[in-house]
Amino acid sequence: MAYKITDACVNCGSCEGDCPAEAISEKGGTRWIDPAKCKDCGTCKDTCPTDAIIEE
């Protein structure tokens, strides 16, 4: 089960720098998690200051 970034994202980038799988990138003015790369570790969810990352 991969994680997903919701519309609550403020594009701060803290999740991208902390993702050990390098699954997060900027896309369309917000951050996006590539489900093929996501390892379901939850690091991004723990890092997000706006709780914009959810389990999908």
Write a structural description.
This protein is an alpha+beta fold. The chain has a single domain, classed as 2-Layer Sandwich (Alpha-Beta Plaits), CATH 3.30.70.20. The strands form two sheets. The chain has a two-stranded antiparallel sheet. A hairpin with a 2-residue loop joins strand 2 and strand 3. The protein starts with a strand and ends with a strand. The mean pLDDT is 94.
Short key terms for the protein model shown above:
single chain, 56 residues, alpha+beta, Alpha-Beta Plaits, two-stranded antiparallel ribbon, 2 helices, 18% helix, 25% strand
Task: List segments where confidence is low: pLDDT < 50 over at least 5 consecutive residues.
Answer: none
User: What class, by secondary structure content?
Assistant: alpha+beta
- Straight-line N-to-C gap: 6 Å
**Approximate shape:** globular
Concise overview:
The chain has helices at residues 14-18, 43-47, and strands at 3-5, 24-27, 30-33, 53-55. With 56 residues, it is α+β, with helices and mostly antiparallel strands.
Write the SSE topology:
Layout: E1 3-5, H1 14-18, E2 24-27, E3 30-33, H2 43-47, E4 53-55
